[in-house]
């Protein structure tokens, strides 16, 4: 009885090993497997299936981010501030 259980466990492990080999031996299947690992690692960030390749280690540092142009944002903020102030002034003047 005990050897029968061991044989069942060995058969299950052998099946898992065969399945792993079939997945990892195919290039496309391997990429999809790497993609699923990348999705589990960072669930909030989407990555394309063929973008994730955990076998390649990045060798270069990413380029520095371009500085953000704050001018247009500042102009829009000043425009809304002027609009609100003008509406308050016109409201006060018209209600007298």
UniProtKB/TrEMBL annotation:
The chain crosses the membrane at residues 75-94. GO terms for cellular component: chloroplast thylakoid membrane; NAD(P)H dehydrogenase complex (plastoquinone). It comes from the Eukaryota. InterPro entries: NdhU_chloroplastic (IPR044199). Keywords: Membrane, Transmembrane, Transmembrane helix. This is Chaperone DnaJ-domain superfamily protein. It comes from Kalanchoe fedtschenkoi (Lavender scallops). The lineage of its organism: Eukaryota, Viridiplantae, Streptophyta, Embryophyta, Tracheophyta.
